[in-house]
Amino acid sequence: MVGGGQLARMTHEAGIPLGIRFKLLSDTPQDSAAQVVSDVVIGDYRDLDTLRDFARGCDVITFDHEHVPTEHLRALEADGIPVRPGPDALVHAQDKGVMRAKLDAIGVPCPRHRIVADPADAAAFAQEVGSFPVILKTVRGGYDGKGVWVVRSEADAHDPFLAGVPVLAEEMVDFTRELAANVVRSPHGQAVAYPVVESRQVDGVCDTVIAPAPDLPADRALEAQELALRIAAELGVVGHLAVELFETRDGRILVNELAMRPHNSGHWTQDGAVTSQFANHVRAVLDLPLGDPRPRAPWTVMANVLGGDYPDMYQAYLHCMARDPQLKIHMYGKDVKPGRKVGHVNTYGDDLADVLERAGHAAGYLRGTIVE
Length: 372
Prior knowledge:
The protein has 372 residues and is α+β, with helices and mostly antiparallel strands. It has 11 helices and 15 strands. It has helices at 6-15, 48-55, 70-78, 87-94, 96-105, 119-129, 218-235, 269-272, 277-285, 314-323, 352-367; strands at 23-26, 39-42, 113-116, 134-138, 148-151, 167-171, 175-185, 191-193, 197-202, 205-211, 239-248, 253-259, 299-306, 328-331, 341-349. The strands form 3 sheets. Strands 7, 8, 9, 10, 11, 12, 13, 14 and 15 form a 9-stranded antiparallel sheet that branches. It has a 4-stranded antiparallel sheet with strand order 3-6-4-5, sandwiched between helices. The longest helix is centred in the middle third of the chain and has 18 residues, at 218-235. The two termini are 40 Å apart.
């Protein structure tokens, strides 16, 4: 697995019961997954020679991020190393311009958009869609709100162009909430779909995920699942695909972003689904039969734990575990920094209000924003 973050850490955990030997290419020995994987190579994934040396002897290569250069992945394939998802699929998660062009071509509903050349062109796009504000995104490198700007005037539109990469302009969608459809697809075409979830954001970062999305009509949930499955098939995705969606006020579903790896909106599956997103990603990249994606309980809530006042969260476990014996805590082994994702909690049960309160309390107590 290329990338040593928490997604690699949790994917490794899912492979342990299957006896899978896991090799990791990590930036530093302190990375989340590097702390728990026995076979770790420290190196730069952007260096082709390092990548080739790492891949030698591996049966398959997969990722916990989308940042490996596309041409490097093609070189690995030319060397006979299976890469899953392959470069022809992964480029749609690496480059937002490529993604939008492909989704347009296959008839997937998206916000209105186009590549813009400069602030004046961004202003012209704003006129095309009605008015400011509009969204500007660098086509490569953005995540968790980085590389994304809400632009309210031409004078406000200069920063996105400083990076020297193409900039995608999108209309500001009038949406009621954000949803995510998570699916997994294997090389021989088997695919499974998890329940559509509601994803609640705070300052551009995922805060809470509710599975399934409350009050989502069955036909709209099915529409979102079928859309994600179609995208996975059309793009040739192997492994996990997260399709981030807007539910608009006029009843439409629009595709916002794609991620071709386990995803924050699927962390609830660790404790709330028969087969987690991590286990199914492992099965898919190894071309094993996929597991049951159905939920174990009527409601599951995932709440991210962000760094706050407690540098050592171990003492906070005493309160959280005693208060809620069903609580599931997943920490990533990261140094605690304000606002940094350092873990998440999962709660589940029959009553949504109760499940939400338990998850919110635990995440807040671990962060230090709740003290009783």
